[in-house]
Specification:
Layout lengths: L2 H8 L11 H10 L5 E5 L2 E5 L5 H21 L10 E5 L2 H9 L2 H4 L5 E4 L2 E5 L4 H20 L6 H12 L2 E2 L5 E2 L6 E7 L2 E7 L1 H13 L6 H4 L13 H16 L3 H15 L6 H7 L4 H14 L1
Parallel strand pairs: 2-3, 3-5
Antiparallel strand pairs: 1-2, 4-5, 6-7, 8-9
């Protein structure tokens, strides 16, 4: 870790609003030793021990354009605030130690988390593995800026998933509405098998479970207080269901998409965001909206 990073962290006495606490920054700096350093990733401050190279370069291009993509997609104004930071760990063990300091993430097999103006993630072996994680967590920072109070879980996770699933072009622009996929080689017996992983595979697996009735009920998913997003047994499907709900609301019907963006702007000010509220906002009743949503899931 460079001396400059340590001095910067240790010298902070008070964190401005939405900025990470000095204690969390110092903990991150400790875990990034001996090669940790401070840089920037688009408009965000970056603390990392990942080596300079194609991974950070591509992530930088995506991060630079993420606020613009967020505004265009959701109709919400959110600018990164000074001091907000991403900690990107090269080592899984270091990330696990950092996540374990927060009770909410201690027992969950997360690859990233966000809170208090700080996003944290562990890097994969390739940009295609790391980009969805980083985009998801940085999108959380933008959502937390846009909302006057903590957003409903389905909105918080749904907006992040929608953007994290996207492929990116060579300049780092997210291809909105797309599904990224990575083909990787895995050992199988005495040989090697190539499998598809990533957002596309996650959505496909969810669709198959939903087809057999193993799916979260929308009223529970959209409840203001729910354990679906924090319970180890339900959180993966809850995240995917929320992301697909956002995709459904923004796909196909421009009028419904614009009503949904108006609904989101009202939610940023504290308007209720349950299933009945959402249905009324987009000009439907809850039952027909839920039916149309599950039909959309099966068509994906």
């Amino acid at each position: 870790m460079t001396p400059g990073l340590f001095l910067l962290v240790a010298g902070l006495e008070e964190a401005p609003a939405h900025a990470p606490s000095p204690a969390r920054l110092e903990r991150a700096a400790t875990l990034l030793r001996p090669v940790g350093r401070e840089a920037t990733l688009g408009p965000w401050r970056l603390l990392t021990d990942v080596a300079d190279g194609p991974l950070l370069e591509q992530l930088g291009h995506v991060a630079a354009r993420l606020p613009e993509s967020y505004r265009a997609r959701f109709g919400l104004d959110a600018e990164p605030r000074a001091g907000e930071a991403l900690v990107l760990f090269a080592r899984d063990a270091s990330y696990r130690a950092f996540a374990a300091d927060t009770t909410e993430f201690k027992t969950l097999a997360t690859l990233g988390h966000t809170g208090g103006g700080l996003a944290a993630a562990v890097a994969g072996t390739a940009p295609e593995e790391t980009r969805p994680i980083v985009v998801h967590e940085l999108a959380h920072l933008l959502t937390h800026e846009a909302f006057a109070r903590p957003p409903p879980p389905w909105i918080d996770e749904g907006l992040s998933e929608d953007l994290a699933w996207c492929r990116a072009d060579a300049e780092g622009r997210l291809l909105i509405g797309s599904f990224d996929a990575v083909t990787t080689a895995r050992p199988l017996g005495d040989g090697i098998v190539r499998i598809t992983v990533g957002p596309r595979a996650t959505a496909d697996e969810f669709r198959e479970r939903a087809r057999t009735g193993r799916r979260p009920a929308l009223p529970a998913l959209l409840a203001p207080v729910t354990r679906l997003f924090s319970d180890a047994g339900t959180r993966r499907d809850a995240y995917t269901a929320a992301g697909l709900l956002v995709r459904f609301l923004l796909a196909g019907d421009p009028a419904r998409a614009e009503r949904f963006r108006v609904f989101l702007r009202a939610a940023t000010l504290g308007a209720p965001a349950g299933l009945d509220d959402l249905a009324a906002a987009v000009g439907a009743d809850a039952k027909s909206l839920e039916k149309a949503y599950w039909s959309f899931v099966q068509r994906q």
